[in-house]
Specification:
The chain is mainly alpha-helical and 193 residues long. The chain has 6 helices and 3 strands, in the order H-E-H-H-E-E-H-H-H. The chain has a 3-stranded antiparallel sheet with strand order 1-3-2. 8% of the residues are buried.
Length: 193
């Protein structure tokens, strides 16, 4: 029975590719990397993708000289990068802790003037009662809106405007009716003679 070969995972390919650079501490061209990668168990079709991923993650450097691309990565660069990242993260944590302390202090300062005293509770209750009364008065005023003098004046203006328009149409229809009668009479007279 033949055993199935298990493929190499993407992380393993990245690690193996980095080993090529760190073991030799040399500068390579793409075709050199492809030859060494095949020896490390990375299929040749995946070499360019893995190499580009390492370049994108800033673990391998690339420089174009003439028409060729040269790739390199030294072990000391990785440790320096890790130390730099660690220092930056420690500074970020320190800044975040300082900001947290400032915010906690601000919260305590704002709470200092707001202790629940009896006078404050009474004022809040009075405020709620006044808000309730205002809303009920507004609701009652909305009920009497139809009797509002301004609303009545607006309705009167609208009625006057409608009456004027209706009279204009009535005059126009009477004029048309009169004209039609005149024309009909003229035509009858012309037919009789």
């Amino acid at each position: 029975m033949q055993s199935k070969r298990k493929g190499v995972s993407a992380d393993e390919k990245r690690d193996r590719m980095l080993e090529i650079f760190h073991d030799s501490a040399d500068v390579f061209m793409l075709k050199d990397i492809e030859k060494l990668a095949v020896k490390k168990g990375i299929i040749s079709q995946a070499v360019k993708d893995v190499l580009q991923a390492l370049v994108d993650d800033d673990l391998v450097h690339v420089e174009k000289i003439g028409i060729s691309n040269y790739y390199w990565s030294f072990p000391s660069e990785a440790s320096v990068k890790v130390e730099t990242d660690l220092l930056r993260l420690r500074q970020d944590v320190a800044a975040a802790e300082k900001r947290r302390a400032e915010l906690e202090s601000a919260v305590l300062d704002s709470k200092a003037g707001r202790e629940d005293m009896e006078a404050r509770a009474a004022k809040l209750a009075e405020l709620r009662e006044l808000q309730r009364r205002v809303s009920s008065c507004q609701a009652e005023a909305a009920q009497y809106k139809d009797n509002d003098p301004e609303t009545v004046r607006d309705m009167q203006r609208g009625a006057d405007l409608a009456k004027t328009g209706a009279n204009r149409w009535l005059d126009t229809s009477w004029t048309l009716q009169s004209w039609c009668k005149q024309e009909a009479t003229d035509h009858r007279t012309a037919l009789i003679h």
